[in-house]
Design a protein that fits this description.
Four copies of one chain form a homotetramer. The first copy, chain A, is mostly helical and 200 residues long. The first copy, chain A, is 76% helix and 0% strand. Chain A has helices spanning 7-27, 34-41, 45-51, 55-78, 84-101, 103-114, 116-142, 151-172, 177-190. The longest helix of chain A has 27 residues, at 116-142. The interface between A and B is large, with 53 and 53 residues. Chain B binds a DNA duplex (21 and 21 nucleotides) through α1 and α3.
Amino acid sequence: MTRRLTQRGQERRRQILDFAIARFAENGYHPTSVAEIVQGLGVGKGVFYWYFESKEELFLEILKEAQLDLRRAQRAAIEDVTDPVERIALGMRATMAWSASHPELHRLVQFAGTQEHFAAAMRKGQETAVRDAGRHVRDGIATGQIRDLDPEMLAHAILGMTAQLAREFLHERHVSHEVVADTAVSLLLDGLLVPSPTRA
Amino acid sequence: MTRRLTQRGQERRRQILDFAIARFAENGYHPTSVAEIVQGLGVGKGVFYWYFESKEELFLEILKEAQLDLRRAQRAAIEDVTDPVERIALGMRATMAWSASHPELHRLVQFAGTQEHFAAAMRKGQETAVRDAGRHVRDGIATGQIRDLDPEMLAHAILGMTAQLAREFLHERHVSHEVVADTAVSLLLDGLLVPSPTRA
Amino acid sequence: MTRRLTQRGQERRRQILDFAIARFAENGYHPTSVAEIVQGLGVGKGVFYWYFESKEELFLEILKEAQLDLRRAQRAAIEDVTDPVERIALGMRATMAWSASHPELHRLVQFAGTQEHFAAAMRKGQETAVRDAGRHVRDGIATGQIRDLDPEMLAHAILGMTAQLAREFLHERHVSHEVVADTAVSLLLDGLLVPSPTRA
Amino acid sequence: MTRRLTQRGQERRRQILDFAIARFAENGYHPTSVAEIVQGLGVGKGVFYWYFESKEELFLEILKEAQLDLRRAQRAAIEDVTDPVERIALGMRATMAWSASHPELHRLVQFAGTQEHFAAAMRKGQETAVRDAGRHVRDGIATGQIRDLDPEMLAHAILGMTAQLAREFLHERHVSHEVVADTAVSLLLDGLLVPSPTRA
DNA sequence: GATGAATGAGTCTTCATTCAT
DNA sequence: CATGAATGAAGACTCATTCAT
C-alpha cells in the first residue's frame, strides 16, 4: 500500500475513514460490512480496496490515528508545565476533552482493547500512554508529592478511571467534560476519604 | 425454549456454556462460530440448538450468569460489615478475587460493554453494581467519612479503576489479586498525594 | 407400518392426523415441521414416528383419506337418483357441502395437485372423480339431455368450476354452500347466456 | 435493492429468473434450493444474491411478472371488441393460449394460490382478473345477453373452469389450446344441457 | 409406547475480496 | 481511479430421522 495520493485521493480516503469510524462505533467492527461502507458512501467496492488493503487494515489505521491524536492532545496540554502533579491533572483533563469530542474513537479503542486479535496493534499506544503517565508519577514520587506506591499500577489506575468516567458520564449522560474532569482529578489526587488529623 | 432437561441434559448445557466462554474469551464473540463450538465438543450441530435458541442467546446467558455470580461474591464479602468505607474496600477486594478466578468472564463483560448491541443486556447488571457502590458512598458521606462529591461519579470511578487494574495486572501480568487490591484500595481511599499539613 | 393399534393408539393417531391437517393447511406442507406438530400436541418425537413412517407418509395418508371421504359423500348424495343430470347436480352440491365442512382438506388437495411430487398419490383419486362425473355426462348424452361435447372435458370443467367457487366463496367469503351450489349448478346446466328463440 | 444493472447484468437476471421458473415448476418452490439454481447456472452463490434479495423475493417477482404478462395478453385480445360476450370468449381464448405457451408459470400461479403465505402477493393480480371478467359479465347482464346471476360468482366460475381445463388438457394431455378453448367457451355460454323447447 | 437427546446433511444468506471493463 | 459483477468459503440455523433409556 502506501500509495501516493492526489489531493482528491486524500479526501476520498478521509471520507472512507470517517464513515467507517461512525459505522464501526455504532454497529461494531464485525457486524459492519465493507459493502455497507461503500454503499453508504455511494461508491463502488473498488474504491475501498484502492485505498485500503483490507477491512482490518482500515480498522488498524483508525486505531493508530486515534491513539496518535489523543497523545498529541495530551502533550499539547502539558507542554508548558513542569510540576508532575499538574501534568497528571492536565493530562486527565485533556483526555476527557478529547474523549468528549471523539466519542466514536473512544469506543473503538475500548473495543479493540478487549479483543486479543487487536491487542498487538493497541499495545504500542497503550504502553506509550502508561509510560507517559508513569513518568509523571515517578517524578512526583521523587519530589515527595506523590505517595510511594507502584508507579505503573498508579498509571493504570489513572487511565482506567478516566476512561470509565469518560464513557459513562461524557457519552452516556452527556455531562460536560470539565465537570467530570474536576471530580476525577480531585478524587484521584486526594482520595475518597475526608482527611482526618489522626490519619495525617 | 426453557426445556425440561434431564441430569444428562443439564451437564451438556454446562459443557457448552463452559466451552463457549473459553472460545469467546480467546477469539472474540463474532469470530467464534457455532461450528467451532460443537466441533470442539465433538457433538453434532443440532446439539447446540437443542440447548440454546441462538448464538446470541447463549452469549446473553453467559453475561447474565457472570454478572450474577460476581454480585453474589460481592454480597458475601460484605455481609458481616456495616462500615461503608470497609464495605467499599471489601467489595473491591472481592471483585479483584472474582476477576482473578474468572478471567474469561471478566473479558467478556468488558467486551459486551463496548457493543451497543449488548448494551441492553448489560445495563441491568451495570446499574445494580453502580447502585450497590453508590449506596456505600452515600452512607460514607452521611457519616462524614467520605468527601462530598457526586456519589454516582465516585461509584463509577471505583468500578472503572478496579476493572482496569484487574485487566492489566491480574490477567496480563499475573500479579496476585491481594497485592493489586491493596494498592487499589489505598489509592482510592487516600488519593495519589502525600497528605501535607497545610492541606489538612 | 400398518401396526395393530389399541383403542388409545387409534385416538393418538387421529390426534396427530387432525393437528397436522390444521398446520399443513395453515402454513403449508413444507414449512410445517414434525417438531412443530409433536410440540403442538405436547408429546415427544418418538410418538410421531411410532404412528407414521415419515412426514410424507402422513401427508399421503391425509390426502387419501380426504379423497375417500369426499367420494363417500358424493355417492351417498346420489344413491337414490338415476337421472344423470340430477346426479351431476347432486354431486356438485355434495362437493360444495363437503368442501364447506372440510376447508383444510380442500386446501391440501388443491396444493397437492400443483406438486409434481404428489401427483401420483392424487392421480387415482382424481381419475375416480373424473370417471364418476364422466359417466353421468355420457349417460346424459345418451339420453339426449346433455349436449354432445367431449365428456371428459365436460367432467373436468365441472370439477374445476366447482373447486374454484368453493375456494373463493366458501372459504374466503363464507357464503353459504347452498347459495354457491345453486349458482354453480344453474350456470353449468344452462350456461351464461339468456336463451334466445333464434338460438334454440 | 433496485440496483442499476448493465446490459450483461440484465441478462444474468433474466437467466436466473428463467432457470428458477423451470426448477420451481418442476420440483416445487420449497424443494428447489438456491444452491440448485446457481449450480444449474454454473455461477457462484453470490450471484443470486446480487440480483435478488432472497429466494422469496425472486418467487414473488416471478408471480408478479406472470400475472402482468397474462393480463397484457388478455387486454390485447379484446381491445378491438366491444360486445361483452365476445370479450369474455376472447379473454378465455387468450388465457388458454397464454397458458399453453407458459405452462410453468401457470403451475406456479396455481401453487401460490394454495399457500396462505403467498396469498397477499396473489391477491392483487387475482382481484384484477376478477374485476376484468366481472365487468364484462355486468355489461352482458345490462345488455340482456347474460342471465342475471351474481356477476362476481360468474367471474370466478369462468376463471376456475378455464384454469382447470388448461391444467388438465393443455399441460397433462397436450390437446391444442384452440380445441380446449372451443369447448370451454361453448360450455360456458350455453351450458351442459340441450336447449329444450319447453325450457325456453 | 414414549421421552429427551443427538445427528449431520442441507438451507438460506453474508461477506471479504478479486477482477474485467 | 472507479464500477458492477462475480466468487465461494463460511456462517447461523433447521429439520427429518434415529436411538438409548
